[in-house]
Write a structure and sequence with these properties.
Blueprint lengths: L1 H8 L21 E7 L2 E7 L5 E2 L5 E2 L10 E3 L2 H14 L14 E4 L2 E4 L10 H19 L2 H10 L6 H12 L3 E6 L2 E2 L3 E2 L6 H11 L3 E5 L9 H9 L6 E4 L6 H8 L4 E5 L5 H14 L2 E6 L2 H8 L6 E5 L11 H6 L2 H10 L2 E5 L5 H10 L3 E4 L1 H4 L4 H9 L6
Length: about 400
């Protein structure tokens, strides 16, 4: 298990050394760099960078030639300590992977694995992230990045996610709707037994949705990338957000290859440098980024990152899963709200929106779009559900 943890952790942006790190980027180019850790090598394309220096004075040499790259030998203990330090500094509570492997205890011919704080997830989001880290490592083995890069090169041009939100808001005078195609959730279980993702997507579009969000996590939400691909191939015109737990840059290319126009990045599980790098990669391959925040600390972190155009405020408590829509108003008051307006950032309200009064509340707080799934997908006719949510027909 310990070897597995070391191997999978080497494929993440979090393999970078201690922060801060200075990087120089060049547009419309790419490079491949590799981290060598415990003899496991992982590579992924990003934007071409020059030499970077860590705070301890050590240098990272990144190759400028796509065909020749430097393998960096980074000691596991140093990387792990660096990640813990960075996460603590940025107020990140979700651990990206188990700090320790499950200890083995032998009693005669039997072997026992005992749970402890170091190998047991502290909440559902941490459990999802740990599972996703292993899942992505396995998927990378089956679909190397080179094949995904070719797929993104020939994919249909991405649709204008932000443009669709703005057009809808201007037309209706209400927040634009990102309707979510979601079969289940960890907190609610199965939301709809007769789940047909294509039919639900078409019903959303007919009801006036500006964009669609498609859950692709299989284990916890019973979603799939096949659903995303099927909706795109069915002729649905709404731009599609890939609703996934992104922990590795490889996933960005996979989402784009499957037809996504936008992706979700969750500030609660990604360090600032991860978000910066992934945002730049998304811009390079044509994906819009929606960065999700849950509290004041995450909002402050994201507002300091250049290039952020969409911020989603999730009203659900990550540890208790309780929902309070007043969280949206709290995060948009005072200096934060003013900074958002100055930067021209579109704010998306998420979770806990069931009635026209809920929509009006977050709109008054400063929200320009809302992401809604449960209250719509559970209804027999999601098209009528949208009219009920807004208190009027927004499809015309």
């Amino acid at each position: 298990m310990q070897e597995l943890i070391c191997a999978t952790s080497s494929v993440s942006f979090n393999s970078l050394p201690s922060s801060p790190v200075n990087h120089t980027f060049y547009d419309n180019t790419r490079f491949t760099f590799r981290f060598l850790r415990n003899k496991h090598i992982a590579s992924f394309p990003c934007m071409r960078a020059q030499q970077s220096e860590a705070t301890d004075g050590s240098a990272i040499n990144i190759a400028s030639d796509d065909s020749k790259v430097d393998a960096l030998d980074i000691k596991e203990s140093k990387v792990k300590n660096s990640q813990i330090d960075i996460a603590a500094t940025q107020g990140i509570k979700i651990r990206r992977r188990p700090p320790t492997g499950p200890p083995l205890h032998h009693v005669g011919p039997f072997e026992f694995r005992l749970q402890n704080e170091g190998n047991t997830p502290r909440n559902i989001l941490e459990e999802i992230v740990w599972n996703k880290d292993t899942e992505v490592a396995q998927m990378r083995e089956k679909k190397p990045l080179g094949s995904l890069k070719k797929a993104t090169d020939i994919a249909a041009p991405p649709r204008d996610f932000i443009g669709a939100l703005k057009a809808s808001s201007e037309k209706t005078g209400m927040p634009a709707l990102i309707a979510e195609v979601k079969k289940a959730s960890p907190s609610r279980g199965v939301l709809r037994e007769d789940f047909d993702p294509v039919e639900i997507a078409k019903a959303y579009e007919k009801g006036g949705a500006a964009c669609l969000s498609v859950l692709t996590d299989a284990k916890y939400f019973q979603g799939s990338f096949e659903n995303l691909e099927a909706i795109r191939n069915a002729g649905v015109k709404c731009p599609l957000l890939c609703k996934e737990f992104i922990v590795d840059a490889w996933q960005l290319y996979y989402a784009r290859a499957k037809g996504a126009d936008a992706v979700l990045l969750i500030a609660a599980i990604l360090q600032d440098l991860d978000i910066k790098y992934m945002t730049k990669i998304c811009k390079m391959i044509g994906l819009t980024v929606l960065v999700e925040v849950h509290d004041e600390n995450e909002m402050d972190r994201v507002l300091e990152i250049d290039g952020i155009q969409l911020i989603g405020i999730n009203n659900r408590n990550l540890e208790t899963f309780e929902v309070d829509i007043s969280n949206t108003k709290k995060l948009l008051e005072g200096e934060r709200g003013e900074k958002i307006r100055q930067k021209g950032i579109i704010v998306v309200g998420e979770s806990g929106l069931f009635t026209p009064a809920d929509v009006a509340y977050v709109q008054e707080a400063g929200v320009k779009a809302i992401l809604v799934g449960e209250s719509l997908v559970k209804l027999e006719d999601p098209t009528k559900g949208i009219a009920l949510l807004f208190g009027k027909d927004i499809s015309e």
